[in-house]
Amino acid sequence: KEITIYSPATSANLGPGYDIFGLALKEPYDLVTVEIIESSCKCCEKVKISVSGEKAEEIPLDPTQNTAGVVALKMMEDFNIQECIHIKIQKGIKPGSGLGSSSASCSGVAVAVNKLFELNLDDLKLIKYASLGEAVAAGAPHADNVAPGIMGNFTLTTSYEPLEVLNIPLDMDVVVALPNIQVSTKEARKILPQEIPLSKMVNNVGKATGMIHSIYNKDFENLGKYMMGDQVVEPCRATLIQGYDEAKVKVKDFAHGITISGSGPAIIAIPKNKECSSEIAKIFKEIWDCPIYETSVGKGAYEI
Ligand code: HSE
Predict the structure, then answer these.
(1) What's the rounded mean pLDDT across residues 287-304?
(2) How, if at all, do strands 2-12 and 255-260 pair?
(3) How far does Cα 181 stand from its chain's mean position?
(4) Are the C-beta atoms of residues 150 and 25 closer than 8 Å to each other?
(5) Cα of 286 to ligand 1 centre, how many Å?
């Protein structure tokens, strides 16, 4: 018995929404298959993992070190699942790219285990399980990638203790670039200030709330403007991504807004229209000569 889940890339933060805002993308995506298997030897683990696709060789196969493995082990422990499983991950999302690669595998496996063993967990519980994998990957169980990864659309993780997530439908095109630059999420979190002046808090709350108003009004021009108004996280991380400042200037006429996706190096832009989308893709290609996705906001993980 096996089940395969489509698990989308996600873009977290979107400027002023650090650890809160997240967006599910139609492309790229991982395919996560979970199969119930006979245990072949007495000493084998309950969870076996194999990975293919984008940078598969860099992903640990030990289930206690693999983000999806950690999620599966915890769910199996909590629900007293005695069977052994084989998790097969086909990576379409490049690891360490800023597009929620590890969280896509975590979300995919949470949804698969839930279906396969008929656990009937709601989205919030699945997000909680999936975010355990993020703790392994990023050093903190941030939920702003797994929340859209499970629910789709645009999500707001409005509270961590207890976990609370809101979901807003959003139909919007985006252009994403994956520059070939290494940025570790753990490191990109460490460089952020632990305290900020009140004036910056006022700015960021203003911009973040403006974004929500813009989404409800389908006002993508203002959405992009507010998205670029972060004064805390994006300015710190911008220095890690060579070519980003140039991209910001060059896409100005074609994009409502541009920002760093998650902890980077991926960059996400909101095109003014379809033609602008191709222009932005061209500009990104010239600057980084890297994979580009002209895609749109999409659904959360689902069985295929
Ligand atoms: N909110 C997280 C961060 C997302 O910016 O560190 C990581 O993809």
Answers:
(1) 98
(2) unpaired
(3) 18
(4) no
(5) 26
How far apart (Å, rounded) are the C-alpha atoms in residues 301 and 197? 38
Is the CB of residue 12 below 6 angstroms from any atom belonging to ligand 1?
Answer: yes
| pLDDT for 44 | 57
Residues 94/176, Cβ–Cβ less than 8 Å: no
Among residues 246, 254, 292, the alpha carbon closest in space to that of 270 is found at 254
Q: The tokens 């979190």 sit on which residue?
A: 189
Give the 3-state secondary structure of residue 238. helix
- pTM value? 0.96
Sign of CA dihedral 270, 255, 241, 95: positive
**CA-wise closest residue to 11 among 132, 119, 172:** 172
Distance between CA atoms of residues 115 and 7, nearest Å? 14
Question: Does position 159 have pLDDT exceeding 90, yes or no?
Answer: yes
- The closest-lying atom of ligand 1 relative to the alpha carbon of residue 262 is 8
Phi/psi of residue 192, nearest 5 degrees: -80, 150
- What is the chain's mean pLDDT, rounded? 95
Cα-based angle 185, 188, 194 (whole degrees, multiple of 5) = 120
The verdict on the CB of residue 91 being under 6 Å from ligand 1 is no
